[in-house]
Write a structure and sequence with these properties.
141 residues, Arc Repressor Mutant, subunit A, Dna Ligase, domain 1, 2 domains, 41% helix
């Protein structure tokens, strides 16, 4: 079997398809497993992680480790590679992931870097809260 970038299986493609469909979310191996099982494909967690590792090596997926104790999250990598240049906001209600391209956050990054000598890791920096849609739904109740 070719283990290079040309190596593909139905399982790998199903995982990649799920990640692409959920590119605005951080997903876990467990959520991938649940999705595949609902589609009638039983894929073990070890196999999922193996495919995710290959996708990481190929630059198709990014891995986020939020706090060191929670399971790692994965996200389809946009082809422009812009996720390494901005912060993310994650809704605690619906799981939506918002890419924050905002000059205020850029100013915060620069301030922390210049005044405190600390470089923020965008892959591990996620702000949690409630998105506009979920907040509106709460207010309408």
């Amino acid at each position: 079997m070719d283990k290079g970038t040309g190596y593909k299986t139905k399982q790998r493609q199903a995982i990649l398809d799920y990640l692409m469909e959920n590119k605005d979310k951080h997903v876990t191996a467990a959520s991938i497993s649940e999705h595949l099982e609902k589609d009638g494909a039983r894929v073990g967690t070890t196999t999922i992680y193996r495919h995710l590792d290959k996708l990481l090596e190929q630059g198709l997926v990014r891995k986020y480790m939020i706090d060191g104790t929670t399971s790692s999250c994965f996200q389809y990598a946009d082809q422009q590679g812009k996720c390494k240049e901005h912060f993310h906001l994650k809704c605690g209600k619906c799981g939506k992931l918002i890419h924050m391209n905002c000059s205020h956050f850029e100013e915060l990054y620069e301030h922390i870097l210049e005044d405190h000598g600390f470089e923020i890791d965008f892959f591990r920096t996620v702000f949690y809260g409630i998105c506009r849609d979920c907040k509106k739904t709460e207010e309408d109740l």
